[in-house]
Please model this.
Amino acid sequence: MSNLKRLRLIVIAAVAIACTINYYAMHSAAAAPAALASQIVTTPLKFDRLDPAADRIIPTGAILQRVATGFTWTEGPVWVGDSLFFAEIPSNSIRKWSPTQGVSIWLQPSGYKGSTPYGGREPGTNGMTLDVKGRLTVAGHAQRDVLRFESFDPAQPPTVLVDSYQGRRLSSPNDLVYSSDGSLYFTDPPYGLPTQGDHDPLKQLTVNGVYRIPNALVHKPGAPPDNASLQLLISDLPRPNGIAFSPGEKYLYVNNSEPKKIWMRYTVNPDGSIKDPKLLYDATNDPRAGGPDGMKVDVEGNIYSAGPGGVWIFSPDGKPLATLLIPERVGNLTFGGADRKTLYIAASTSIYRVRLNITGLPLVQTR
Model:
């Protein structure tokens, strides 16, 4: 065979191989969204209608969709662009879910990075939010700090905003929310410690507090923790957990997981401190699985919170309107989608979503 013929055969074979590869690549890409869609489990939403006002919030024929599953304990969901970021605490990771790509690991390890085994059930990070600049801010949980990612490149070192109060290490920051003045409020129960109790050998603080970091927004990237400015706002809740502001930031809501399952409201002073604690609701006697945990608010001031049996919806003054009955114990939730009308729910092994009628409040309000 001449060299010319041999060359022609090689070219023809190369073109055939390239066409075959391109064919399967195109068909695989086209099939990916359909495959992901087939993994979504859709069921009618079950809920307890506790007040007629719930009809304005929950659409007729509302459905509950399980969009991802196979985890151990999901937490801290936050909607970023067109994707959902959430913590998978036992695997010490932050995951990312998108409608087109499904679930991927964004960061692992996300929390505890010690050289010896952690020794507890929750080595990862917990609650997450965004500041007004779009930077991901995270409750470090087992890492015992509050940190901020300066970009969405997980390889870039985060900035630790605080890790101690009056010379003593934080216990395990759990959930957090920004105010419009750039301050950051967060809860600090002991759930991220190895024993999750008040007598854990690692616990240094005697209180399980709610704190404020003034001017967290302007903390310079890479700067040391600004522990000296940290303010203790609440010291009498045994297990403070979810935290959120009302529209206009007149009120700060904080719930408590145990032994009492309660939701509290505090009036916010002009300087960012709080006063006038008021009990909004007490669900201590509800025997269903779950308790007060992650919490968000919609633009009309209605409160959405993890609670016994699923997601509780309260009016702004604490009147129960409905309970969305979720088939797993709920840890946290957030509003997502382009119009913030989709409620994403982190519940034990799965991520769920439900479409609602009212828009969720932005994570950071503007004055």
Q: What stands out?
A: The chain is about 10% helix and 40% strand. The longest strand covers residues 274-282. Residues 2-34 have pLDDT under 50 and may be disordered.
